[in-house]
Amino acid sequence: MQPVLTSKKFGNTPKGDEIQLFTFSIPGQIEVSVMNYGATWTHLLIPDRNGKLEDVVLGFDTLDGYLQKDYLEHYCYIGSTIGRIAGRITDNRFHLEGKTYELPANLNGIHLHGGMEGWDKKVWESEPFETNNSVGVTFYYQSKAGEENYPGTIDIWVTYTLDETGRLEISYKASSDEKTIINPTNHAYFNLTGDFSKTIEGHGFFVDAGKYLPMNQNSLPTGEIASVGGTPFDFRNLKTISEPIHREHSQLEIAGGIDHCFVLNQPEDCAVLYDPESGRKLKLSTTEPGIQVYTGNYLGNNFEGKNGLTYGKRTAICLETQHFPDSCNHPEFPSILLMPEEIFQSRTQFVFSAE
Ligand code: BGC
Prior knowledge:
Blueprint: E1 4-12, E2 18-26, E3 30-35, E4 40-47, E5 53-55, H1 63-67, H2 69-72, E6 81-82, E7 93-96, E8 99-102, E9 125-130, E10 134-143, E11 154-163, E12 168-176, E13 180-181, E14 185-186, E15 189-190, E16 204-207, E17 209-213, E18 226-227, E19 239-240, H3 242-245, H4 250-255, E20 259-264, E21 271-274, E22 280-286, E23 290-294, E24 317-322, E25 337-338, E26 344-354
The structure holds beta-D-glucopyranose.
Beta-D-glucopyranose binds next to β23.
């Protein structure tokens, strides 16, 4: 069925920018909302096996929720577009064309998810659109050379599209006037039960990855690309998260759970999340080589989310499709360089069902 697009005011930023919430829906099947503050994915309502629509992504009921101090102090990036670079960077620096770029540390001495004021905190221009089989919105932002000390002015477009089958796509397009680096992602937190007082430990998870990136004590890749065989990171068959996550394994101790990049074998249906209770299922395809899987280990009931609920440890799971973290310091990883004559492109698709 052809989806419907609506929009409404979601709030004002302290600087007075009016933020719009765009909603794409197919009645009874799916309702997706996104806003132009941080090009953020705020809501996803999908039915359980009895047709009951519930919201399955963490977020806030109003813009003010996203601006509250208690939330910002905990660096959770709920539903945000992350840029320029997802994840952490070794020693907060990288080298390019004989120059060293020092990046500001925003969390415990580390540069995380774009820095002090990443793309998650920017007001983006919005262009809603309708075609004959889809609706969506394209968000645009110009990241000037020198922003967070990165070189090159980047023009970035993030497009959310819902098609007539109920498939949601997030696509990225970017160009730069100078050689630079880029590795954006989306930071949605999923809990398919639709009940954010529950954890995601009962969810089944599959990821078509034979390898993953072990981390050092600072949650940065060691550089090793290790086999998942015989480790808690082997989700090559759908497996309930609670079992591997409680095993004793030095890699699970570092982040208090999974917070690791999985190296994808192939792009199609390469990750599945399934909630046996509600029957809700998410299938993901991506053009990116990796998924940073983060099991909400640092959520700690620190702020109020939707319906006044606080979000505790493992309330949700993030599936951040991207190039590998810290690629700028690992020439052996797929490159995140963006040359002036190039167009950066990336696509991730989500298909939802209930069984
Ligand atoms: C990172 C985590 C971080 C979380 C929230 C994830 O992408 O891998 O280490 O705590 O984002 O900022």
